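queue> pop job 88
queue> type: inverse folding (structure -> sequence)
queue> payload:
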């Protein structure tokens, strides 16, 4: 008798088990890592991504590439999450994290071929990751907010190899100055919210024309042409209420059966608006930013009193204006007094590109500032903005932790060297996983060398020899093609980039290694649930 097969899954489900599941996951992750690998370092190349609507993105920012690619494969999506975590935590180092995760899985594949159990590899990786954190912390250098040159070097390192490289000196100065302005110091601890450095981009002029505004730049124009275009020694009022006649909360019907009553009704509305604007005028304010609407009659009265006003300002901009000018956001005009007003040197309406914008500048001690990013085309401006975001994230991370390391592959080679010594102290099979982890970390200097057109084997050999002589900051100088002292060359990065990349990459590698069964339902997309290999919905080997 033949045994009737038993199906436990509904029709249309795909199931991949054992080594096939591990291989397909590792292959997908490796493909993601290979995609962004060529963008790493100062000599990294850019990617052009065209979406379904025909919009073009040109970038070498790891997280932007992976987000724009619309990856479907579930294992590959996990690597995209690594990039997003790195972006949220530090703002830079996304490519490093993804390339490291891909290499860890590639090394794990060789160990799986030797019949080492995935949980043993995962345990070894965990030990190696913990040890790497210790090593990185021990080799890091201390930094404070007074180390201007080092902070500037960090910003320049973040922008090198990106679209902003031509004007990196000037942009680095703007970044460091902006971050130091918005930093709050409490009990010798620096608190930096990078959202307080607002980036406003406008096409036109060159990248070198970008500027730091000690205050806030609003994408708004004055509401009435009779208002002054420029206000000096501005007294600023921030309103989170309408300067309009409010409708009643409950449904109400007003019946008017006499034309004179209608005129009285209109006059009363006008009187109410006049009272509102009188309260503003009497407070001494000469600039009003309103989060909601301003009635036409109120605009007329404000213009008559030479008051500059903008309406429908975003809440996020209102909060930044409050930090920059020292004003309080008022929700009730009845409680308005002179004490709630903020101040700035100048408020003016200026045409930037083809749009009128409001500059609130020359604030005395702004805790929120704006960097106006300029560039010849939209793609250039977008890429410069991404480069400045990376620089802001790096400088802020360095100041928060007070720890930095040199770049150019130096910390990776030093960590790998010390990891190998640590592996010799282990006795079980985990030793092989720790050694594989040490080899994997060296993918960063190897990739830097490859992207610069150098021989990776010669470079790594020279690097290891220098580190054996205790030159801990020996790294690859991609411009001269030689090994040099990365710290003296000004290639400096915050410690957080390295620790976060190691943490995220090792955790995702461990997670993917422990999967030995993939059960995928076929969705409405006609089978885009889980292809046997390659990227989601694409033939194997194709991106």
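queue> result:
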């Amino acid at each position: 008798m033949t045994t009737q097969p038993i199906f436990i899954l509904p029709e249309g489900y795909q199931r991949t088990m054992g080594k096939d599941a591990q291989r397909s996951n590792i292959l997908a992750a490796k493909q993601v890592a290979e995609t962004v690998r060529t963008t790493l370092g100062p000599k990294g190349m850019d990617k052009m991504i065209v979406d379904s609507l025909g919009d073009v993105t040109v970038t070498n920012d790891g997280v932007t590439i992976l987000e724009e690619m619309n990856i479907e494969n579930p294992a590959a999506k996990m690597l995209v999450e690594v990039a997003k975590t790195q972006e949220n935590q530090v703002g830079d180092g996304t490519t490093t994290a993804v390339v490291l995760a891909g290499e860890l899985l590639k090394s794990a594949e060789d160990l799986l071929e030797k019949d080492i159990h995935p949980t043993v590899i995962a345990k070894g990786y965990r030990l190696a990751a913990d040890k790497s954190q210790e090593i990185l912390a021990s080799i890091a250098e201390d930094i404070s907010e007074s180390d201007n040159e080092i902070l500037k070097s960090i910003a320049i390192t973040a922008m090198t190899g990106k679209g902003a490289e031509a004007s990196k000196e000037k942009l680095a100065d703007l970044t460091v100055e902006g971050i130091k302005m918005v930093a709050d110091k409490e009990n010798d601890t620096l608190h930096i919210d990078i959202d307080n450095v607002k980036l406003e981009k406008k096409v036109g002029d060159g990248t070198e024309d970008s500027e730091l505004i000690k205050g806030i730049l609003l994408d708004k124009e004055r509401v009435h042409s009779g208002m002054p275009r420029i206000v000096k020694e501005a007294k600023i009022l921030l309103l989170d209420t309408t300067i309009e006649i409010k409708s009643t909360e409950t449904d109400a019907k007003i019946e008017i059966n006499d034309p004179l009553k209608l005129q009285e009704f209109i006059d009363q509305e006008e009187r109410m608006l006049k009272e509102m604007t009188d309260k503003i005028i009497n407070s001494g304010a000469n600039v009003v930013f309103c989060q909601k609407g301003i009635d036409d009659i109120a605009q007329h009265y404000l213009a008559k009193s030479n008051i500059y006003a903008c309406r429908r300002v975003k809440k996020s901009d209102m909060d930044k204006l409050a930090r920059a000018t020292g004003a309080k956001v008022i929700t009730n005009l009845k409680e308005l007094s002179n004490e709630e007003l903020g101040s700035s040197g100048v408020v003016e309406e200026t045409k930037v590109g083809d749009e009128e914008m409001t500059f609130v500048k020359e604030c005395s001690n702004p805790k929120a500032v704006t960097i106006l990013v300029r560039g010849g085309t939209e793609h250039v401006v977008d890429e410069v903005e991404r480069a400045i975001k990376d620089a802001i994230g790096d400088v802020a991370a360095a100041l928060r932790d007070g720890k930095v390391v040199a770049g150019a592959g130096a910390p990776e080679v030093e960590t790998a060297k010390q990891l190998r010594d640590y592996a010799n102290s282990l006795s079980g099979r985990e030793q092989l996983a720790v050694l594989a982890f040490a080899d994997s970390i060296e993918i960063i200097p190897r990739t830097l060398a490859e992207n610069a057109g150098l021989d990776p084997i010669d470079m790594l050999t020279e690097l290891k020899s220098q580190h054996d002589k205790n030159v801990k900051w020996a790294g690859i100088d991609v411009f001269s093609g030689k090994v040099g002292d990365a710290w003296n060359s000004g290639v400096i990065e915050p410690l957080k980039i390295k620790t976060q990349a190691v943490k995220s990459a090792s955790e995702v590698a461990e997670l993917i290694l422990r999967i030995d069964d993939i059960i995928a339902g076929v969705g409405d997309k006609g089978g885009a649930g889980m292809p046997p290999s390659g990227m989601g919905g694409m033939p194997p080997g194709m991106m």
